[in-house]
Amino acid sequence: MTSRQLPVAVASLLLCISSFACSDDTQSSEDDETSTSEDSTDTDSTESDSSDSDASDTTPLDTDTDTDTDSTDTAGTCELEFEEAAPGTSSTITIRNERDSAIYIPFTISTCTFEPFAVYDGDVQYLWYDDAYIPKCTEVVEAGCEWGCSDGPTQVIRLEPGAEWEVAWGLYVWAPIELDEACAAESDGCEAGATCWAGREWVEDGPLTAQIRVSEACSFDECECGSDACTLDLDSITAEEWEAEIVELEFDAGFVGDISLTIE
User: Fold this and answer.
1) Which of 99, 93, 228 has its CA nearest to residue 157?
2) In this predicted structure, what is the pLDDT of residue 203?
3) What is the pLDDT at residue 69?
4) Could you tell me which of 93, 120, 95 has the C-alpha nearest to residue 257?
5) Among candidates 73, 235, 51, 27, which has minimal Cα distance to 150?
């Protein structure tokens, strides 16, 4: 190659390199535009998917809310039915000892209640003694069914032959019922089916049964009281463990007046 031809060759080489660079720049620009277009398409697709997802999520929430409302409506309201006792209406029950020896009548424990004797209507036991603790439904629900028995003091009746002991009979008893789901839901701890006692006025003429515990033996140290008829204080454990026979006597629970229960 001659010295004259060298500049021509160099110029041709430079032109070729320049053409190649321009070609690469053009291709890179086209690739960038394509990538940008694809990214834009993906973004639109994502936003569309997000919108569909939000719409889908809203439906189950509304369904759950409706279900909860229906469940609350089904539970209903706690309604505890009580029958009010007629004011000033009561009778007097007299227990008379017709035996030849002194008798002792230890109070009977009924649930957590110590009463002079237990009262039954068939297989259903009623609580009745005003001085005893009775787990009343309204109080039990308010306490969340957290109540229990205590070993408190009680009494025993002592009757000499021919002696009598009187107690008021208010023509009003407390009957066991089971709490329903509505009452359990309104309490903090009660479960449906828990037992409590609701007030019932006994207005029908018909017999109830008095179950009286009777013993002719003294079961603790001091059994004398200085009179033919009296009550002696003792602890609940001694009262429960006192060996006694059960005497069953029927009486007219609706009778207003004097009701006699005779131990023969």
Assistant:
1) 228
2) 56
3) 32
4) 93
5) 235
Joined together, the tokens standing for residue 119 give 């009262």
Half-sphere exposure of 239 (CA within 13 A, CB side): 25
d(CA 107, CA 30): 105
pLDDT at 175 over 70: yes
Contact 170/90 with Cβ under 8 angstroms? yes
Strand order from edge to edge, sheet including 118-121: 124-126, 118-121, 207-214, 245-252
Closest CA to 163 of 118, 218, 103: 103
Structure token pair of residue 48 = 């569309």
Please tell me whether residue 30 adopts helix, strand or coil conformation.
helix
* 3-class DSSP assignment, residue 70: helix
Kindly give, in sequence order, each residue whose CB lies less than 8 Å from that of residue 99, ignoring residues fewer than 6 positions away. Answer: 161, 216, 263, 264
Residues 228-262: pLDDT tens digits? 999 999 888 888 889 999 999 999 988 888 999 99
Please report the pLDDT score of residue 171 as a whole number.
83
Helices (H), the chain: 5-75, 137-142, 181-186, 236-241
The mean pLDDT value for 85-114 works out to 88
Which token pair is 199?
């007030």
Residue position matching structure tokens 């007629």: 86
Q: Say how many residues make up the chain.
A: 264
Classify each residue of 126-141 as buried b or exposed e, where b means 16 or more C-beta atoms within 10 Å of its C-beta.
bbbbeebebbbbeebb
Structural tokens at position 57: 């999520």
